[in-house]
Design brief:
This protein is mostly helical and 115 residues long. Helices cover 57% and strands 10% of the residues. It has a single domain (2-104), classed as Arc Repressor Mutant, subunit A (Orthogonal Bundle), CATH 1.10.10.10. The chain contains five helices and three strands. The chain has a three-stranded antiparallel sheet. Helix 3 crosses helix 4 (56-68).
Length: 115
C-alpha cells in the first residue's frame, strides 16, 4: 500500500507542475517533452512516440499542435524521401531555452529532483 501512496503523491506533484507549466509556457507537458526530445536531434514521429511514451496516434496529434504553434518543422529524410522527421524551428529553440530557465517549483516527492 505504501507504494501506491507514493505513486499518488508523485502523480499529484506532476499534475501541479503541469498546471503551472501550461500557464507559464502556453504548452501542455507533452508538448514540452516533444521539444525536449528534439533538442539534440531530429526524430521521426515513431521515435518521438517512444521517447515520450505515447501511441503513434496521440503523438501525431501532438506534433500537429506543436507544428501549428511554429515550434517544430517537418524535414524529409535524406536517404528515404518518404520518411518524415521533425526538428525545432528557431522559435522552438527559443521556447525550449525559456522552458529550461523557468522557475516553476517542483513539489512533493518531485522536489527532491531539484536539489
Amino acid at each position: 500500500m505504501k507504494k501506491l501512496c507514493v505513486i499518488r503523491d508523485i502523480c499529484r506533484s506532476i499534475s501541479d507542475f503541469e498546471s503551472e507549466f501550461q500557464k507559464t509556457h502556453n504548452l501542455c507537458l507533452n508538448e514540452g517533452m516533444v521539444l525536449c526530445s528534439l533538442k539534440q536531434a531530429r526524430l521521426s514521429s515513431g521515435e518521438i512516440a517512444k521517447q515520450i511514451n505515447l501511441t503513434c496516434s496521440n503523438t501525431s496529434k501532438l506534433i500537429r499542435s506543436i507544428e501549428d504553434k511554429g515550434l517544430i518543422k517537418r524535414v524529409l529524410g535524406e536517404e528515404d524521401k518518404r520518411q518524415m522527421y521533425f526538428s525545432l524551428t528557431q522559435k522552438g529553440i527559443s521556447k525550449l531555452a525559456e522552458i529550461e530557465e523557468d522557475k516553476i517549483k517542483l513539489t512533493g516527492p518531485l522536489s527532491k529532483l531539484a536539489e
